[in-house]
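Re: that chain you flagged

S.,

Sorry for the slow reply, it's been a week of failed gels. I finally had a moment to sit down with the sequence you sent. For the record, here it is as I used it:
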Amino acid sequence: MSDGLTPRPEHKFSFGLWTIGHPGRDPFGDATRPPIDPVDFVRGLAKIGAWGVSFHDDDLMTFGAPESQRRAELDRFKAALAETGIVCSMATTNLFWHPMFKDGAFTSNDRNVRRLAIQKVLRNLDVAAELGAPTYVLWGGREGVESAASKEPRDALDRYKEALDFLCGYVRDQGYAIRFALEPKPNEPRGDTFLPTIGHALGFIQMLEYPEMVGLNPEVAHETMAGLSFYQGVAQALWQGKLFHIDLNDQKIGRYDQDLRFGSEGIKDDFFLVRLLEASGYDGPRHFDARPYRNDGGEGIWDFARGCMRTYLVLAQKAREYDLDPRVQEAMAKAGVPELAESTVGRYSADSAARLKAESFEPDRLADRTYGNEALDQLVIDRILGV
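Prediction finished late last night. Pasting the structure tokens below so you have them in one place:
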């Protein structure tokens, strides 16, 4: 009998080519394990029960190589997808690795770098469409500054908008079924990054020519680096209909971007995140943008991938049990959780305003109410720990 913890295609678990296959390189040390050929990567995903794969252009096709070589690399990958049934769940462009992007890509002070960056995305959009990727993520890794004097932020946002508007126009003109998802991050590799948080990105999207085509790809680690609640950020993205994709990993607050295995650190936050995703109707990939520990290798890197999926399924199971627990329901009622879903005043009218102004309240009685949050929170801990 299944314990419900075996990954299946309907769970929509996906991994990027740069995740499980990361060679263990970091700013202070070289690679600790060999890279994985994209074809072997796809076959490995199929063996562990994953559903999808994502890629940067340069993960899949050699940058600067002749077009014939790039075409052959792409065709091998397509054949592996067809062989295994793994789908291409998302695509993105590497606009951060090559030294030409040291001052940014869409927001570089060099106009030709900006033009090349947009060209690079256009060409990979064609690949994404060929592979059937429905979402195209844009992470502004180098879009930012170390010196505030080096860029006028309003001009940088104009250039960011110009790039997004142009790319949306291209997708519309080509008839591609692709939406864009911005991935915020507060810093690293730049000292200060443009569009650093979910809130900044949501505000930026409203200024675009085609805002309906652009949403978010928030990442656990990135929002945690900023000291913010990822759970609340994702909830707002869902509320605004802008959660197009999501990157799951883990992170210790106040550290560099660690990309730890999902569920390995902020287990309580992860519990509420999984509960939110499962209850919200979100139907996109559960995409793991994480890496195995640098001191692991061999089968250990696949243990890492299995662990990401297993922890998600464990938390989903715990969330279902939590919501069905009568003690939890009673504690939520005391805390007023269902009451928050009730309308406060409804739509404005002169009559409703007059009635509200005439209503009598008892402030001291309202102040006497207790909400029982301590007991409710303990039920969360008990459920997570299996007590």
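What I noticed first: The chain has a mean pLDDT of 97.

Talk soon,
D.
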